[in-house]
Amino acid sequence: MTDPLPLLEPGVPVAQARRKRARWLKLLLADRRASISLVVLVVLVGAAVFAPYVSPAQPDAMAFDMLTPPSWAHPFGTDDLGRDLLSRVIFGARISIFVGIVTVVSSMLIGVLMGLLAGYYGGWLDTVIMRYIDLQWAFPNFIIAVYLVAVFGAGLSNVIIAVSLAFLDDFARIARGMVLTVRERDYVEAARALGASDLRLMLRHILPNSLAPLIVQATVSVSYAILAEAGLSFLGLGVKASTPTWGLILSDGRSFISRAWWLGIFPGVAIMVTVLAINFFGDFLRDVFDVREAAVEEGA
Amino acid sequence: MTSYLLKRVLGAIVVMWAVATLVFFMLRAVPGDPLQAMLFDIGDPHAADVLRHKYGLDRPVYVQYALWMWNVAHGDLGASIYGSRVPVTQIIAEAFPRTMALALFAFVIAMAIAVPAGIVSAVRKNTPLDHGFTFLAFLGLSMPDFWLGIVLIIVFAVKLHWLPAIGFAPLSQGFGPWVEHLILPATAIGTAFSAILARMIRSSMLEVMKADFITVARSKGLVETRVVLKHAFRNALIPVITVVGIAFALLMAGAVVVENVFAIKGLGRVLIQGILNRDYPVVQGAILVVSAIFVFMNLVVDVLYTFIDPRIRLR
Q1: What is the third-level CATH fold of B89-314?
Q2: Contact residues on chain A for B252, CB-CB shorter than 8 A
Q3: Complete DSSP assignment for A55-96
Protein backbone atom coordinates (compact mmCIF):
# COMPACT_ATOMS: atom_id res chain seq x y z
CA MET A 1 0.00 0.00 0.00
CA THR A 2 2.79 2.36 0.83
CA ASP A 3 4.82 0.93 -1.97
CA PRO A 4 4.52 3.33 -4.87
CA LEU A 5 5.77 0.90 -7.47
CA PRO A 6 4.04 -2.51 -7.40
CA LEU A 7 6.16 -3.57 -10.37
CA LEU A 8 9.08 -4.08 -8.02
CA GLU A 9 7.23 -6.71 -5.97
CA PRO A 10 9.48 -9.73 -5.50
CA GLY A 11 6.74 -12.08 -6.60
CA VAL A 12 7.00 -15.06 -8.94
CA PRO A 13 4.96 -15.21 -12.16
CA VAL A 14 2.30 -17.92 -12.22
CA ALA A 15 3.78 -20.09 -14.95
CA GLN A 16 7.14 -20.11 -13.19
CA ALA A 17 5.48 -21.12 -9.93
CA ARG A 18 3.77 -24.05 -11.63
CA ARG A 19 7.03 -25.16 -13.17
CA LYS A 20 8.67 -24.92 -9.74
CA ARG A 21 6.01 -27.11 -8.20
CA ALA A 22 6.48 -29.72 -10.91
CA ARG A 23 10.22 -29.74 -10.29
CA TRP A 24 9.57 -30.28 -6.60
CA LEU A 25 7.30 -33.23 -7.17
CA LYS A 26 9.81 -34.75 -9.55
CA LEU A 27 12.62 -34.40 -7.01
CA LEU A 28 10.47 -35.85 -4.25
CA LEU A 29 9.46 -38.89 -6.30
CA ALA A 30 13.07 -39.46 -7.34
CA ASP A 31 14.17 -39.52 -3.68
CA ARG A 32 12.80 -42.79 -2.35
CA ARG A 33 13.91 -42.08 1.22
CA ALA A 34 12.18 -38.69 1.26
CA SER A 35 8.93 -39.93 -0.27
CA ILE A 36 8.70 -42.87 2.15
CA SER A 37 9.36 -40.43 5.00
CA LEU A 38 6.61 -38.14 3.79
CA VAL A 39 4.14 -41.04 3.63
CA VAL A 40 5.14 -42.10 7.16
CA LEU A 41 4.66 -38.55 8.42
CA VAL A 42 1.25 -38.23 6.78
CA VAL A 43 0.16 -41.54 8.35
CA LEU A 44 1.46 -40.46 11.78
CA VAL A 45 -0.22 -37.08 11.69
CA GLY A 46 -3.40 -38.71 10.39
CA ALA A 47 -3.33 -41.25 13.22
CA ALA A 48 -2.81 -38.43 15.72
CA VAL A 49 -5.65 -36.31 14.37
CA PHE A 50 -8.11 -39.21 14.04
CA ALA A 51 -6.87 -41.05 17.15
CA PRO A 52 -10.39 -41.69 18.58
CA TYR A 53 -11.41 -43.38 15.32
CA VAL A 54 -8.31 -45.40 14.48
CA SER A 55 -7.19 -46.64 17.89
CA PRO A 56 -8.64 -50.01 18.94
CA ALA A 57 -9.48 -48.87 22.49
CA GLN A 58 -9.69 -45.81 24.70
CA PRO A 59 -6.18 -44.90 25.92
CA ASP A 60 -7.21 -44.98 29.58
CA ALA A 61 -9.69 -47.88 29.44
CA MET A 62 -8.50 -50.44 31.98
CA ALA A 63 -9.06 -54.17 31.78
CA PHE A 64 -8.11 -57.22 33.81
CA ASP A 65 -5.57 -58.53 31.31
CA MET A 66 -2.60 -56.68 32.76
CA LEU A 67 0.93 -56.84 31.33
CA THR A 68 -0.09 -59.20 28.53
CA PRO A 69 2.46 -59.56 25.73
CA PRO A 70 1.66 -58.43 22.16
CA SER A 71 -1.18 -60.45 20.62
CA TRP A 72 -3.91 -60.02 17.98
CA ALA A 73 -6.18 -58.40 20.56
CA HIS A 74 -3.41 -56.07 21.76
CA PRO A 75 -0.75 -55.70 19.03
CA PHE A 76 1.58 -53.75 21.37
CA GLY A 77 0.52 -55.63 24.54
CA THR A 78 -1.01 -54.06 27.65
CA ASP A 79 0.46 -52.08 30.54
CA ASP A 80 0.31 -52.62 34.30
CA LEU A 81 -3.25 -51.28 34.46
CA GLY A 82 -4.43 -53.42 31.56
CA ARG A 83 -4.56 -50.49 29.15
CA ASP A 84 -4.00 -51.19 25.45
CA LEU A 85 -0.49 -49.96 24.62
CA LEU A 86 -1.18 -49.42 20.90
CA SER A 87 -4.06 -47.07 21.74
CA ARG A 88 -1.90 -45.19 24.20
CA VAL A 89 0.89 -44.83 21.64
CA ILE A 90 -1.61 -43.55 19.02
CA PHE A 91 -3.06 -41.03 21.45
CA GLY A 92 0.49 -40.20 22.57
CA ALA A 93 1.24 -39.08 19.01
CA ARG A 94 -1.27 -36.25 19.51
CA ILE A 95 0.61 -34.47 22.27
CA SER A 96 4.11 -35.37 21.08
CA ILE A 97 3.54 -34.10 17.53
CA PHE A 98 1.44 -31.15 18.73
CA VAL A 99 4.18 -30.03 21.12
CA GLY A 100 6.81 -30.53 18.44
CA ILE A 101 5.01 -28.30 15.95
CA VAL A 102 3.68 -25.65 18.34
CA THR A 103 7.04 -25.14 20.04
CA VAL A 104 8.90 -24.79 16.78
CA VAL A 105 6.35 -22.37 15.30
CA SER A 106 6.42 -20.12 18.37
CA SER A 107 10.18 -20.48 18.69
CA MET A 108 10.59 -19.50 15.04
CA LEU A 109 8.28 -16.48 15.37
CA ILE A 110 10.13 -15.08 18.40
CA GLY A 111 13.57 -16.07 17.17
CA VAL A 112 13.09 -14.64 13.68
CA LEU A 113 11.70 -11.42 15.12
CA MET A 114 14.75 -11.10 17.40
CA GLY A 115 17.12 -11.88 14.54
CA LEU A 116 15.39 -9.46 12.17
CA LEU A 117 15.46 -6.63 14.71
CA ALA A 118 19.09 -7.29 15.62
CA GLY A 119 20.29 -7.57 12.04
CA TYR A 120 18.18 -4.74 10.60
CA TYR A 121 18.70 -2.06 13.21
CA GLY A 122 22.15 -3.05 14.48
CA GLY A 123 23.64 -0.84 17.19
CA TRP A 124 22.78 -1.38 20.85
CA LEU A 125 19.71 -3.46 20.01
CA ASP A 126 21.90 -5.88 18.09
CA THR A 127 24.39 -5.98 20.98
CA VAL A 128 21.74 -6.70 23.63
CA ILE A 129 19.94 -9.36 21.60
CA MET A 130 23.08 -11.09 20.40
CA ARG A 131 24.67 -11.14 23.85
CA TYR A 132 21.65 -13.02 25.09
CA ILE A 133 21.63 -15.34 22.06
CA ASP A 134 25.35 -16.03 22.53
CA LEU A 135 24.76 -16.83 26.19
CA GLN A 136 22.07 -19.34 25.27
CA TRP A 137 24.19 -20.66 22.40
CA ALA A 138 26.82 -21.80 24.89
CA PHE A 139 24.44 -24.44 26.25
CA PRO A 140 22.67 -27.37 24.59
CA ASN A 141 18.99 -26.70 23.91
CA PHE A 142 17.85 -29.59 26.07
CA ILE A 143 19.77 -28.26 29.08
CA ILE A 144 18.19 -24.83 28.56
CA ALA A 145 14.77 -26.50 28.49
CA VAL A 146 15.53 -28.34 31.75
CA TYR A 147 16.71 -25.07 33.37
CA LEU A 148 13.52 -23.31 32.28
CA VAL A 149 11.29 -26.10 33.58
CA ALA A 150 13.22 -25.83 36.84
CA VAL A 151 12.08 -22.20 36.97
CA PHE A 152 8.53 -22.48 35.61
CA GLY A 153 7.66 -25.89 37.06
CA ALA A 154 6.45 -29.00 35.24
CA GLY A 155 3.31 -29.29 33.10
CA LEU A 156 2.27 -29.19 29.44
CA SER A 157 2.12 -25.42 28.94
CA ASN A 158 5.39 -24.89 30.80
CA VAL A 159 7.09 -27.54 28.68
CA ILE A 160 5.86 -25.76 25.53
CA ILE A 161 7.19 -22.42 26.80
CA ALA A 162 10.49 -23.94 27.93
CA VAL A 163 11.17 -25.83 24.69
CA SER A 164 10.14 -22.80 22.56
CA LEU A 165 12.53 -20.52 24.42
CA ALA A 166 15.27 -23.14 24.35
CA PHE A 167 15.23 -23.36 20.54
CA LEU A 168 14.90 -19.69 19.60
CA ASP A 169 18.63 -18.99 19.43
CA ASP A 170 18.95 -21.19 16.33
CA PHE A 171 16.33 -19.14 14.47
CA ALA A 172 17.57 -15.77 15.69
CA ARG A 173 21.07 -16.56 14.43
CA ILE A 174 19.90 -17.66 11.00
CA ALA A 175 17.51 -14.70 10.61
CA ARG A 176 20.16 -12.19 11.63
CA GLY A 177 22.75 -13.68 9.34
CA MET A 178 20.36 -13.64 6.42
CA VAL A 179 19.35 -10.03 7.08
CA LEU A 180 22.98 -8.99 7.07
CA THR A 181 23.60 -10.61 3.69
CA VAL A 182 20.32 -9.61 2.08
CA ARG A 183 20.15 -6.06 3.46
CA GLU A 184 22.72 -4.68 1.07
CA ARG A 185 21.22 -6.25 -2.07
CA ASP A 186 20.14 -3.88 -4.82
CA TYR A 187 16.43 -4.65 -4.68
CA VAL A 188 16.31 -3.84 -0.95
CA GLU A 189 18.17 -0.61 -1.63
CA ALA A 190 15.72 0.13 -4.43
CA ALA A 191 12.69 -0.50 -2.23
CA ARG A 192 14.22 1.67 0.48
CA ALA A 193 14.89 4.46 -2.01
CA LEU A 194 11.26 4.29 -3.07
CA GLY A 195 10.27 5.00 0.52
CA ALA A 196 9.22 1.57 1.81
CA SER A 197 8.85 1.50 5.59
CA ASP A 198 11.17 -0.52 7.83
CA LEU A 199 8.42 -3.02 8.60
CA ARG A 200 7.63 -3.49 4.92
CA LEU A 201 11.29 -3.88 4.04
CA MET A 202 11.75 -6.52 6.71
CA LEU A 203 8.60 -8.53 6.09
CA ARG A 204 8.17 -8.13 2.32
CA HIS A 205 11.68 -7.90 0.99
CA ILE A 206 14.17 -9.38 3.43
CA LEU A 207 12.25 -12.21 5.13
CA PRO A 208 11.00 -14.02 1.98
CA ASN A 209 14.57 -14.26 0.78
CA SER A 210 15.74 -15.83 4.03
CA LEU A 211 13.02 -18.46 4.11
CA ALA A 212 14.91 -21.49 2.77
CA PRO A 213 17.39 -21.92 5.64
CA LEU A 214 14.64 -21.12 8.15
CA ILE A 215 12.38 -23.84 6.75
CA VAL A 216 15.19 -26.37 6.84
CA GLN A 217 16.07 -25.40 10.42
CA ALA A 218 12.40 -25.58 11.43
CA THR A 219 12.10 -29.13 10.10
CA VAL A 220 15.18 -30.27 12.00
CA SER A 221 13.99 -28.42 15.10
CA VAL A 222 10.63 -30.23 15.10
CA SER A 223 12.50 -33.51 15.48
CA TYR A 224 14.66 -32.11 18.28
CA ALA A 225 11.58 -30.62 19.97
CA ILE A 226 9.83 -34.00 19.90
CA LEU A 227 12.94 -35.57 21.45
CA ALA A 228 13.11 -32.79 24.05
CA GLU A 229 9.45 -33.18 25.04
CA ALA A 230 9.91 -36.94 25.30
CA GLY A 231 12.99 -36.44 27.48
CA LEU A 232 11.27 -33.93 29.77
CA SER A 233 8.15 -36.09 30.12
CA PHE A 234 10.33 -39.13 30.77
CA LEU A 235 12.08 -37.27 33.59
CA GLY A 236 8.72 -36.39 35.14
CA LEU A 237 9.07 -32.72 34.20
CA GLY A 238 6.52 -32.77 31.42
CA VAL A 239 2.88 -33.53 30.93
CA LYS A 240 1.22 -35.08 33.95
CA ALA A 241 -0.89 -38.09 34.77
CA SER A 242 -3.51 -39.52 32.43
CA THR A 243 -2.55 -37.71 29.19
CA PRO A 244 -0.33 -40.21 27.43
CA THR A 245 2.76 -38.85 25.70
CA TRP A 246 5.48 -41.10 24.36
CA GLY A 247 7.98 -39.98 26.97
CA LEU A 248 5.49 -40.45 29.79
CA ILE A 249 4.41 -43.93 28.61
CA LEU A 250 8.09 -44.96 28.63
CA SER A 251 8.54 -43.45 32.08
CA ASP A 252 5.46 -45.28 33.40
CA GLY A 253 6.54 -48.57 31.85
CA ARG A 254 10.13 -48.37 33.05
CA SER A 255 9.49 -50.19 36.34
CA PHE A 256 7.99 -53.15 34.51
CA ILE A 257 10.53 -53.72 31.74
CA SER A 258 11.99 -56.77 33.47
CA ARG A 259 8.61 -58.51 33.04
CA ALA A 260 7.09 -56.62 30.09
CA TRP A 261 9.69 -55.63 27.47
CA TRP A 262 7.00 -54.26 25.13
CA LEU A 263 6.38 -51.34 27.50
CA GLY A 264 9.98 -50.29 27.01
CA ILE A 265 10.13 -50.86 23.25
CA PHE A 266 7.05 -49.65 21.35
CA PRO A 267 6.69 -46.04 22.59
CA GLY A 268 10.37 -45.53 21.80
CA VAL A 269 9.97 -47.03 18.34
CA ALA A 270 7.18 -44.49 17.76
CA ILE A 271 9.51 -41.63 18.72
CA MET A 272 12.34 -43.00 16.61
CA VAL A 273 10.24 -43.54 13.49
CA THR A 274 8.74 -40.05 13.74
CA VAL A 275 12.08 -38.34 14.29
CA LEU A 276 13.80 -40.41 11.61
CA ALA A 277 11.11 -39.53 9.04
CA ILE A 278 11.39 -35.83 9.89
CA ASN A 279 15.19 -35.97 9.66
CA PHE A 280 15.11 -37.71 6.27
CA PHE A 281 12.58 -35.23 4.96
CA GLY A 282 14.63 -32.34 6.35
CA ASP A 283 17.65 -33.75 4.56
CA PHE A 284 15.67 -33.74 1.31
CA LEU A 285 14.57 -30.12 1.87
CA ARG A 286 18.19 -29.18 2.52
CA ASP A 287 19.16 -30.60 -0.86
CA VAL A 288 16.23 -28.95 -2.65
CA PHE A 289 16.86 -25.55 -1.11
CA ASP A 290 20.60 -26.05 -1.39
CA VAL A 291 21.20 -25.02 2.21
CA ARG A 292 24.62 -25.85 3.56
CA GLU A 293 24.79 -28.49 6.25
CA ALA A 294 25.07 -26.59 9.48
CA ALA A 295 22.19 -27.64 11.64
CA VAL A 296 23.29 -31.23 12.14
CA GLU A 297 26.36 -30.21 14.09
CA GLU A 298 24.43 -28.37 16.75
CA GLY A 299 22.67 -31.36 18.21
CA ALA A 300 19.68 -31.29 20.49
CA MET B 1 48.46 -14.65 22.61
CA THR B 2 48.28 -13.60 26.28
CA SER B 3 45.80 -10.83 25.52
CA TYR B 4 43.63 -13.24 23.56
CA LEU B 5 43.67 -15.73 26.43
CA LEU B 6 42.91 -12.99 28.91
CA LYS B 7 39.98 -11.83 26.81
CA ARG B 8 38.55 -15.34 26.58
CA VAL B 9 38.94 -15.99 30.33
CA LEU B 10 37.28 -12.67 31.14
CA GLY B 11 34.47 -13.53 28.73
CA ALA B 12 33.97 -16.88 30.47
CA ILE B 13 33.79 -15.17 33.86
CA VAL B 14 31.19 -12.71 32.54
CA VAL B 15 29.10 -15.59 31.20
CA MET B 16 29.23 -17.37 34.57
CA TRP B 17 28.22 -14.17 36.34
CA ALA B 18 25.30 -13.76 33.92
CA VAL B 19 24.19 -17.35 34.51
CA ALA B 20 24.41 -16.96 38.31
CA THR B 21 22.42 -13.72 38.11
CA LEU B 22 19.77 -15.22 35.83
CA VAL B 23 19.43 -18.27 38.09
CA PHE B 24 19.07 -16.07 41.16
CA PHE B 25 16.44 -13.72 39.77
CA MET B 26 14.47 -16.25 37.74
CA LEU B 27 13.99 -18.64 40.64
CA ARG B 28 12.70 -15.69 42.68
CA ALA B 29 10.51 -14.23 39.94
CA VAL B 30 8.38 -17.34 39.84
CA PRO B 31 5.14 -17.26 41.83
CA GLY B 32 5.33 -19.44 44.91
CA ASP B 33 7.56 -19.33 47.93
CA PRO B 34 10.39 -21.84 48.12
CA LEU B 35 9.72 -22.01 51.86
CA GLN B 36 6.28 -23.48 51.25
CA ALA B 37 7.94 -26.57 49.91
CA MET B 38 9.94 -26.87 53.14
CA LEU B 39 6.97 -26.28 55.41
CA PHE B 40 4.54 -28.74 53.95
CA ASP B 41 4.73 -31.02 56.94
CA ILE B 42 5.13 -28.38 59.64
CA GLY B 43 2.11 -26.16 59.08
CA ASP B 44 3.16 -23.57 61.67
CA PRO B 45 2.74 -19.96 60.42
CA HIS B 46 5.54 -18.73 62.69
CA ALA B 47 7.91 -21.31 61.40
CA ALA B 48 7.84 -19.59 58.00
CA ASP B 49 8.91 -16.28 59.53
CA VAL B 50 11.65 -17.89 61.56
CA LEU B 51 13.00 -19.71 58.52
CA ARG B 52 12.63 -16.64 56.31
CA HIS B 53 14.74 -14.71 58.77
CA LYS B 54 17.23 -17.52 59.14
CA TYR B 55 17.87 -17.69 55.39
CA GLY B 56 17.84 -13.93 54.99
CA LEU B 57 14.75 -14.05 52.80
CA ASP B 58 13.22 -11.11 54.74
CA ARG B 59 15.99 -8.84 53.53
CA PRO B 60 15.79 -6.64 50.40
CA VAL B 61 16.42 -8.52 47.16
CA TYR B 62 19.64 -6.64 46.36
CA VAL B 63 21.09 -7.62 49.73
CA GLN B 64 20.13 -11.24 49.09
CA TYR B 65 21.70 -11.00 45.65
CA ALA B 66 24.94 -9.58 47.03
CA LEU B 67 25.05 -12.26 49.71
CA TRP B 68 24.41 -15.04 47.21
CA MET B 69 27.13 -13.76 44.89
CA TRP B 70 29.53 -13.42 47.82
CA ASN B 71 28.81 -16.98 48.93
CA VAL B 72 29.03 -18.41 45.42
CA ALA B 73 32.35 -16.66 44.87
CA HIS B 74 33.56 -18.33 48.06
CA GLY B 75 32.33 -21.75 46.99
CA ASP B 76 29.37 -21.82 49.37
CA LEU B 77 26.24 -22.98 47.56
CA GLY B 78 24.02 -23.40 50.62
CA ALA B 79 22.50 -26.65 51.86
CA SER B 80 19.77 -28.98 50.71
CA ILE B 81 16.45 -28.13 52.36
CA TYR B 82 15.75 -31.82 52.91
CA GLY B 83 16.73 -34.28 55.61
CA SER B 84 20.02 -33.66 57.31
CA ARG B 85 20.67 -30.48 55.30
CA VAL B 86 23.73 -31.75 53.44
CA PRO B 87 25.81 -28.90 51.93
CA VAL B 88 25.16 -28.54 48.19
CA THR B 89 28.91 -28.51 47.48
CA GLN B 90 29.20 -31.93 49.12
CA ILE B 91 26.32 -33.36 47.07
CA ILE B 92 27.89 -32.03 43.90
CA ALA B 93 31.38 -33.18 44.82
CA GLU B 94 30.03 -36.72 45.15
CA ALA B 95 28.04 -36.54 41.89
CA PHE B 96 30.69 -34.84 39.74
CA PRO B 97 33.14 -37.78 39.29
CA ARG B 98 30.28 -40.09 38.26
CA THR B 99 29.10 -37.74 35.52
CA MET B 100 32.67 -37.17 34.34
CA ALA B 101 33.38 -40.91 34.21
CA LEU B 102 30.17 -41.41 32.25
CA ALA B 103 30.90 -38.59 29.80
CA LEU B 104 34.49 -39.74 29.21
CA PHE B 105 33.46 -43.34 28.71
CA ALA B 106 30.73 -42.22 26.30
CA PHE B 107 33.33 -40.21 24.39
CA VAL B 108 35.61 -43.24 24.08
CA ILE B 109 32.73 -45.40 22.83
CA ALA B 110 31.64 -42.71 20.36
CA MET B 111 35.19 -42.45 18.96
CA ALA B 112 35.50 -46.22 18.74
CA ILE B 113 32.38 -46.34 16.57
CA ALA B 114 32.86 -43.11 14.61
CA VAL B 115 36.51 -43.34 13.52
CA PRO B 116 36.30 -46.64 11.61
CA ALA B 117 32.80 -45.83 10.31
CA GLY B 118 33.85 -42.36 9.13
CA ILE B 119 37.05 -43.55 7.44
CA VAL B 120 35.35 -46.48 5.71
CA SER B 121 32.48 -44.30 4.44
CA ALA B 122 34.96 -41.80 3.02
CA VAL B 123 37.19 -44.38 1.37
CA ARG B 124 34.22 -46.34 0.02
CA LYS B 125 32.24 -43.24 -0.87
CA ASN B 126 28.79 -43.88 -2.43
CA THR B 127 29.02 -47.65 -2.08
CA PRO B 128 26.31 -49.67 -0.29
CA LEU B 129 28.63 -49.70 2.74
CA ASP B 130 28.68 -45.88 2.81
CA HIS B 131 24.90 -45.72 2.39
CA GLY B 132 24.52 -48.23 5.20
CA PHE B 133 26.60 -46.12 7.55
CA THR B 134 24.64 -43.01 6.51
CA PHE B 135 21.40 -44.76 7.42
CA LEU B 136 22.84 -45.89 10.75
CA ALA B 137 23.98 -42.33 11.48
CA PHE B 138 20.45 -41.02 10.89
CA LEU B 139 19.10 -43.82 13.07
CA GLY B 140 21.54 -42.93 15.85
CA LEU B 141 20.48 -39.28 15.74
CA SER B 142 16.79 -40.20 15.82
CA MET B 143 16.84 -42.46 18.87
CA PRO B 144 16.13 -40.82 22.20
CA ASP B 145 19.18 -41.59 24.36
CA PHE B 146 17.06 -42.58 27.37
CA TRP B 147 15.09 -45.04 25.23
CA LEU B 148 18.28 -46.59 23.87
CA GLY B 149 19.25 -46.99 27.54
CA ILE B 150 16.01 -48.87 28.24
CA VAL B 151 16.50 -51.09 25.17
CA LEU B 152 20.08 -51.88 26.26
CA ILE B 153 18.83 -52.79 29.75
CA ILE B 154 16.15 -55.07 28.30
CA VAL B 155 18.62 -56.84 25.99
CA PHE B 156 21.86 -57.01 27.98
CA ALA B 157 20.62 -57.05 31.58
CA VAL B 158 17.11 -58.53 31.58
CA LYS B 159 17.38 -61.07 28.75
CA LEU B 160 21.08 -61.94 28.50
CA HIS B 161 22.17 -61.17 32.10
CA TRP B 162 25.53 -59.97 30.80
CA LEU B 163 25.69 -56.60 32.50
CA PRO B 164 24.14 -54.92 35.55
CA ALA B 165 20.93 -53.02 34.80
CA ILE B 166 21.40 -50.01 37.04
CA GLY B 167 23.78 -48.32 39.44
CA PHE B 168 27.37 -47.15 39.55
CA ALA B 169 30.49 -48.74 41.00
CA PRO B 170 33.30 -46.38 41.96
CA LEU B 171 36.77 -47.17 40.69
CA SER B 172 37.77 -48.05 44.27
CA GLN B 173 35.72 -51.25 43.94
CA GLY B 174 37.92 -52.33 41.08
CA PHE B 175 38.19 -51.68 37.37
CA GLY B 176 35.92 -54.56 36.31
CA PRO B 177 32.75 -53.50 38.15
CA TRP B 178 33.40 -49.86 37.20
CA VAL B 179 33.47 -50.68 33.49
CA GLU B 180 30.55 -53.12 33.73
CA HIS B 181 28.31 -50.46 35.20
CA LEU B 182 29.39 -47.80 32.71
CA ILE B 183 29.13 -49.69 29.40
CA LEU B 184 25.35 -49.51 28.94
CA PRO B 185 24.73 -45.88 30.01
CA ALA B 186 27.81 -44.69 28.13
CA THR B 187 26.67 -46.47 24.96
CA ALA B 188 23.22 -44.90 25.31
CA ILE B 189 24.80 -41.43 25.52
CA GLY B 190 27.60 -41.96 23.02
CA THR B 191 25.59 -43.37 20.12
CA ALA B 192 24.01 -40.10 18.95
CA PHE B 193 27.36 -38.37 19.18
CA SER B 194 29.14 -41.13 17.27
CA ALA B 195 26.68 -40.49 14.42
CA ILE B 196 27.58 -36.80 14.25
CA LEU B 197 31.28 -37.55 14.61
CA ALA B 198 31.25 -40.21 11.88
CA ARG B 199 29.59 -37.79 9.44
CA MET B 200 32.17 -35.12 10.27
CA ILE B 201 35.12 -37.49 9.86
CA ARG B 202 33.68 -38.66 6.54
CA SER B 203 33.32 -35.19 5.03
CA SER B 204 36.64 -34.04 6.47
CA MET B 205 38.37 -37.12 5.03
CA LEU B 206 36.81 -36.54 1.61
CA GLU B 207 38.13 -32.97 1.70
CA VAL B 208 41.66 -34.03 2.67
CA MET B 209 41.82 -36.90 0.16
CA LYS B 210 41.60 -34.29 -2.62
CA ALA B 211 44.74 -32.48 -1.40
CA ASP B 212 47.99 -32.50 -3.33
CA PHE B 213 50.03 -34.18 -0.62
CA ILE B 214 47.78 -37.23 -0.88
CA THR B 215 48.50 -37.45 -4.62
CA VAL B 216 52.21 -37.09 -3.80
CA ALA B 217 52.02 -39.82 -1.16
CA ARG B 218 50.32 -42.12 -3.64
CA SER B 219 52.77 -41.36 -6.43
CA LYS B 220 55.63 -42.16 -4.05
CA GLY B 221 54.16 -45.64 -4.17
CA LEU B 222 52.85 -45.81 -0.61
CA VAL B 223 50.36 -48.50 0.26
CA GLU B 224 46.78 -47.15 0.23
CA THR B 225 46.19 -48.08 3.90
CA ARG B 226 49.19 -46.00 4.85
CA VAL B 227 48.00 -43.07 2.73
CA VAL B 228 44.57 -43.19 4.32
CA LEU B 229 45.58 -43.69 7.94
CA LYS B 230 48.88 -41.87 8.17
CA HIS B 231 48.45 -38.99 5.75
CA ALA B 232 44.74 -38.39 5.33
CA PHE B 233 43.22 -39.29 8.68
CA ARG B 234 45.65 -37.27 10.78
CA ASN B 235 44.90 -34.13 8.82
CA ALA B 236 41.20 -34.87 8.69
CA LEU B 237 41.09 -34.83 12.50
CA ILE B 238 41.91 -31.11 12.75
CA PRO B 239 38.42 -29.79 11.94
CA VAL B 240 36.95 -32.58 14.05
CA ILE B 241 38.63 -31.16 17.16
CA THR B 242 36.36 -28.14 16.91
CA VAL B 243 33.36 -30.34 17.61
CA VAL B 244 34.89 -31.71 20.79
CA GLY B 245 33.29 -28.80 22.64
CA ILE B 246 29.91 -29.54 21.08
CA ALA B 247 30.62 -33.18 21.80
CA PHE B 248 31.04 -32.58 25.44
CA ALA B 249 27.91 -30.44 25.61
CA LEU B 250 25.94 -33.23 23.96
CA LEU B 251 27.39 -35.89 26.22
CA MET B 252 26.55 -33.83 29.32
CA ALA B 253 23.00 -33.22 28.10
CA GLY B 254 22.73 -36.95 27.47
CA ALA B 255 24.06 -37.73 30.93
CA VAL B 256 21.35 -35.57 32.54
CA VAL B 257 18.64 -37.89 31.20
CA VAL B 258 20.45 -41.20 31.03
CA GLU B 259 21.70 -41.04 34.64
CA ASN B 260 18.03 -41.13 35.58
CA VAL B 261 17.45 -44.30 33.55
CA PHE B 262 20.35 -46.11 35.20
CA ALA B 263 19.87 -44.61 38.68
CA ILE B 264 23.38 -43.17 38.69
CA LYS B 265 23.58 -40.34 41.20
CA GLY B 266 25.50 -37.94 38.97
CA LEU B 267 24.95 -34.24 38.31
CA GLY B 268 21.97 -34.89 36.05
CA ARG B 269 20.15 -36.95 38.63
CA VAL B 270 20.96 -34.40 41.34
CA LEU B 271 19.55 -31.63 39.12
CA ILE B 272 16.35 -33.50 38.19
CA GLN B 273 15.71 -34.77 41.72
CA GLY B 274 16.25 -31.21 42.96
CA ILE B 275 13.68 -29.89 40.49
CA LEU B 276 11.16 -32.61 41.37
CA ASN B 277 11.65 -32.00 45.12
CA ARG B 278 11.65 -28.20 44.70
CA ASP B 279 14.96 -28.23 46.52
CA TYR B 280 16.02 -24.76 45.35
CA PRO B 281 19.55 -24.60 46.76
CA VAL B 282 20.36 -27.92 45.08
CA VAL B 283 18.80 -26.78 41.77
CA GLN B 284 20.73 -23.49 41.85
CA GLY B 285 23.98 -25.23 42.68
CA ALA B 286 23.55 -27.95 40.05
CA ILE B 287 22.68 -25.41 37.33
CA LEU B 288 25.74 -23.34 38.24
CA VAL B 289 28.11 -26.30 38.19
CA VAL B 290 26.73 -27.81 34.97
CA SER B 291 26.94 -24.36 33.35
CA ALA B 292 30.48 -23.87 34.61
CA ILE B 293 31.48 -27.15 32.96
CA PHE B 294 30.07 -25.97 29.62
CA VAL B 295 31.74 -22.58 29.83
CA PHE B 296 35.03 -24.17 30.83
CA MET B 297 34.88 -26.71 28.00
CA ASN B 298 34.14 -23.99 25.46
CA LEU B 299 37.12 -22.06 26.78
CA VAL B 300 39.41 -25.09 26.57
CA VAL B 301 38.35 -25.79 22.99
CA ASP B 302 38.90 -22.15 21.98
CA VAL B 303 42.36 -22.16 23.52
CA LEU B 304 43.24 -25.53 21.99
CA TYR B 305 42.19 -24.25 18.64
CA THR B 306 44.54 -21.27 18.79
CA PHE B 307 47.40 -23.73 19.04
CA ILE B 308 46.17 -25.62 16.00
CA ASP B 309 45.25 -22.60 13.90
CA PRO B 310 47.38 -19.57 14.83
CA ARG B 311 45.36 -17.22 12.61
CA ILE B 312 42.61 -17.08 15.23
CA ARG B 313 44.82 -15.26 17.74
CA LEU B 314 45.10 -12.29 15.42
CA ARG B 315 41.39 -11.59 15.40
Answers
A1: MetI-like fold (1.10.3720)
A2: 140, 143
A3: SSS-TT---S-TTPPS-SSSTT-B-TT--BHHHHHHHHHHHH
